[in-house]
């Protein structure tokens, strides 16, 4: 038998925009990072966010989101610079799992913080003694980070499922 007949052909995944290692994928990662850092900065500008569990959860979630997005942005930049494809089933599975976890954590933290922010501002009318503008800004930035993380998760999941 020939050498080509002995070794099975490797299946290569199709590169679509928004996937890791593409320009749109890098843009999504950078926006995820920027929005997560903006949420973190808005929340850190207050001195009493630690008194509310939902706000502490938001800070933890956006820290995780920003670290994940920054690491993958560097990986995307490297792949683009050396013109290397990241279309591998194992890599895509890792990205899909990581994007899913960070996306759901960010969404849960943003909704919990939105609930507390609405309670403070509308129901209790305590905005004069609290930092409602910072809380609202941090919550909005967390939602924006989730809006940009969700396409990454869905594209990776779709690519992973369509390659099988």
Write up this protein.
The protein is an all-alpha fold and 164 residues long. The chain has one domain (16-163). The chain is built from five helices and no strands. The longest helix is centred in the middle third of the chain and has 35 residues, at 89-123. 35% of the residues are buried. The model is unreliable at 8-13 (pLDDT under 50).
Task: Map the helices and strands.
Blueprint lengths: L2 H4 L16 H22 L8 H29 L7 H35 L8 H32 L1
Helix pairs in contact: 2-3, 2-5, 3-4, 3-5, 4-5
The dominant shape is elongated
Largest beta sheet, briefly? Answer: none
Fraction of residues in helix? over 70%
How do the SSEs run, as a string of H and E?
Answer: HHHHH
> Could you give the distance between the termini?
28 Å
Query: Helical region count?
Result: 5
DSSP strand count: 0
Instruction: Return the average pLDDT rounded to an integer.
Output: 87
Q: Which percent band covers the strand fraction? A: under 5%
Radius of gyration: 20 Å
Low-confidence stretches: 8-13
Structural class: mainly alpha
Return the domain count: 1
